[in-house]
C-alpha cells in the first residue's frame, strides 16, 4: 500500500496512518522525492500522529528523506510525534538532531511558513 | 497442643513471664530498650506472653484459626521482627528448661516434646514473618504510590506554556516517569514551551543531568521547546565541573525569567494596564 | 512460569509479525503505551538484526511471572555468523550495516535486562526483559 501525498499550494502534506513496514517506508521515500520534483514544492509536512512506534530503520529512512528533500530545495517539518515514540527514539540514541518538529499539522504548517518566509 | 506442656505453662505463668522479661531485656537490642520505658516494656511483655499463652489453649483447629489473629496483634505492637522471633524462641527455651528441671521432660519423652514444640512454634513463626512482610509490602507500595503522585505535575500557565516543577531526589525510575508525564502533558496541553523548574532538586549529578537532557531532546521531537529554570549557583558549578553540556537548551536562573523568555518565544507579552492610581 | 510464542524470521514481513506479536503480549500484560513502544521497538531492532546478518532465526516472546512481578522477555536466536567483538557492538555508534548504529546498545537502554551470548560461526542468542512496574 502506498502512502498518499497531498499538495497544498506550494507544500506537500503527508499523513502516515498505519504502521510502516520496510517496503512501504522505502516506497514512500521514492514517491515523496518524485512528488517534490514534479510539483517543485518548497515545503513538506509529514504527520506521524497515528504512528505509535519508530525503530532505527524507519528513523533512518525518515532522516534520509529529510536530507534528500533538503537537497532538492524542500524543507521538511515532522509533526505529531507521540510521547512514546519520542521516548523510544531518544533511548535508542536517535536524536534526529536537525529535524524541524511541531506539535500538530496546524503548527507544522505555521512553522513551515515561518521557515520559508525567512 | 500437648496437655502436659499446656498444663505446665498454665501453672507457671507468672514465673515464665518474669523469666522471659529478664532474659529478653538482657538480650534485647539496645535500640529497643532505649526506645521503650521500663513500665511500657513490662506491660507489653505481659501482653505478648498473655497472647502466647492464650494461644496454647484450645484444639489444633482453633489454634490455626487464631494464628493470623495472634500474628496481627503482635505486629500491631510494633516491635522489630527479630525481637519478636527471638522472644518466641526464648519463651520456648524457658518452658522447655523449666519442664526439664521439674522432671516433666524425661529422656524417654524428650524427642516427642521437642517435636510438639516445633509443631507449635514453626507455624507461629511463619505466620508472624508473613504478616510482618505483608505489612511492609503494603507500606512500601503505598509509599510508592504516594511518591508517584507527587512525582511531577505539569501545570499550564499560559496558552502554549507549561511548567513542570521538580521536587526531591531523582532516580532512574522517577526520571522515566517524569519524562512520560512531561511529554504526555505537553501534547495534551499543546505546549510550545515547557519549563522544567529544578529549584527543588537537591543534587544534579551526571545521571540527573543526562535524564534532563534526554527529556529536553524528546520534547524537541514532539515539536515543543524545553527550558531549564531554577539553576542555583551550586548546581551551575557541579554542571560545569562535571563537564555536562547543557548548551543545546535555554537555561534561566529562576522561573520568572523563564516565563518571560517563554512568553517572548510564543510572541506574547505581559503589559501593565496602567490603573487609575 | 513461562508462556512462549515465537515468530520465525526469514523475510522483512516477519519483522512486522514479530513486533505485532510483541505488542499484543505487552498490551495483554498491561504495559503502558510508552513501554509498549519500547518493547515493540526493541523487537524490531532484534528481528532486523537477524534478517540482515543471520538471514534466518527466531524471535520468541515469553511472559514472565516472578513472585508478584509480571514481565516480558524477548528471546532472539539465530545460527548466523555470530558476533566476534561483543564489546564493540555494544558501543554506541558502531554499525556494520551503515544504519544509524543504534542497534544493540539502544535495545539495552529500552529494556530492563539485557543479555547476549554469541560465538563466531555458531550464532547469537539475545535475551532482553522488561518488568511491569
Automatic annotation (TrEMBL), chain A:
It comes from Mesobacillus subterraneus. InterPro entries: Bact_StressResp_Reg, STAS_dom, STAS_dom_sf. Pfam families: STAS. This is STAS domain-containing protein. It comes from the Bacteria. Residues 1-112 form the STAS domain. The lineage of its organism: Bacteria, Bacillati, Bacillota, Bacilli, Bacillales.
Amino acid at each position: 500500500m502506498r502512502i498518499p501525498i497531498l499538495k497544498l499550494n506550494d507544500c506537500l502534506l503527508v499523513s502516515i496512518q498505519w504502521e510502516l513496514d520496510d517496503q512501504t517506508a522505502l516506497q514512500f521515500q521514492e514517491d515523496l522525492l518524485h512528488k517534490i520534483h514534479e510539483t517543485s514544492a518548497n515545503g513538506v509536512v509529514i504527520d506521524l500522529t497515528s504512528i505509535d512506534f519508530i525503530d532505527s530503520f524507519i528513523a533512518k529512512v525518515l532522516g534520509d528523506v529529510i536530507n534528500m528533500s533538503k537537497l532538492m530545495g524542500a524543507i521538511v517539518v515532522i509533526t505529531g510525534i507521540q510521547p512514546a515514540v519520542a521516548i523510544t527514539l531518544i533511548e535508542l540514541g536517535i536524536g534526529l538532531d536537525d529535524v524541524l518538529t511541531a506539535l500538530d499539522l496546524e503548527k507544522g504548517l505555521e512553522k513551515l511558513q515561518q521557515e520559508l518566509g525567512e | 497442643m500437648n496437655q502436659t506442656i499446656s498444663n505446665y505453662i498454665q501453672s507457671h505463668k507468672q514465673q515464665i513471664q518474669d523469666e522471659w522479661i529478664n532474659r529478653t531485656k538482657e538480650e534485647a537490642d539496645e535500640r529497643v530498650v532505649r526506645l521503650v520505658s521500663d513500665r511500657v516494656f513490662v506491660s507489653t511483655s505481659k501482653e505478648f506472653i498473655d497472647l502466647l499463652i492464650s494461644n496454647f489453649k484450645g484444639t489444633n483447629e482453633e489454634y490455626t484459626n487464631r494464628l493470623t489473629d495472634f500474628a496481627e496483634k503482635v505486629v500491631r505492637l510494633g516491635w522489630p521482627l527479630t525481637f519478636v522471633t527471638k522472644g518466641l524462641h526464648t519463651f520456648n527455651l524457658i518452658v522447655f528448661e523449666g519442664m526439664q528441671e521439674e522432671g516433666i521432660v524425661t529422656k524417654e519423652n524428650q524427642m516427642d516434646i521437642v517435636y510438639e514444640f516445633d509443631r507449635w512454634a514453626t507455624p507461629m513463626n511463619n505466620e508472624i514473618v508473613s504478616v510482618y512482610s505483608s505489612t511492609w509490602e503494603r507500606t512500601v507500595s503505598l509509599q510508592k504510590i504516594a511518591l508517584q503522585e507527587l512525582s511531577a505535575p505539569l501545570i499550564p500557565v499560559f496558552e502554549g506554556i507549561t511548567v513542570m516543577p521538580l521536587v526531591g531526589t531523582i532516580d532512574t525510575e522517577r526520571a522515566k516517569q517524569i519524562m512520560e508525564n512531561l511529554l504526555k502533558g505537553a501534547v495534551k496541553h499543546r505546549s510550545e514551551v515547557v519549563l522544567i523548574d529544578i529549584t527543588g532538586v537537591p543534587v544534579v549529578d551526571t545521571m540527573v543531568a543526562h535524564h534532563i537532557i534526554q527529556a529536553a531532546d524528546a520534547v524537541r521531537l514532539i515539536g515543543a521547546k524545553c527550558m531549564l529554570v531554577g539553576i542555583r549557583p551550586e548546581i551551575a558549578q557541579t554542571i560545569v565541573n562535571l563537564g555536562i553540556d547543557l548548551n543545546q537548551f535555554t537555561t534561566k536562573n529562576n522561573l520568572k525569567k523563564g516565563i518571560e523568555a517563554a512568553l517572548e518565544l510564543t510572541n506574547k507579552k505581559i503589559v501593565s494596564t496602567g490603573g487609575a492610581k | 512460569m513461562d508462556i512462549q510464542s515465537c515468530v520465525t524470521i526469514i523475510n522483512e514481513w516477519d519483522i512486522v509479525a514479530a513486533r505485532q506479536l510483541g505488542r499484543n503480549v505487552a498490551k495483554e500484560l498491561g504495559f503502558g503505551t510508552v513501554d509498549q513502544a519500547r518493547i515493540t521497538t526493541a523487537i524490531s531492532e532484534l528481528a532486523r538484526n537477524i534478517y540482515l546478518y543471520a538471514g534466518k532465526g527466531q524471535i520468541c516472546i515469553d511472559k514472565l511471572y516472578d513472585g508478584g512481578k509480571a514481565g516480558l522477555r524477548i528471546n532472539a536466536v539465530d545460527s548466523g555468523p555470530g558476533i566476534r567483538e561483543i564489546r564493540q557492538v555494544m558501543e554506541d555508534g558502531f554499525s556494520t550495516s551503515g544504519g544509524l548504529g543504534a542497534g544493540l546498545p539502544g535495545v539495552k537502554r529500552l529494556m530492563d535486562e539485557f543479555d547476549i551470548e554469541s560465538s563466531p560461526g555458531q550464532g547469537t542468542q539475545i535475551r532482553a526483559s522488561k518488568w511491569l512496574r
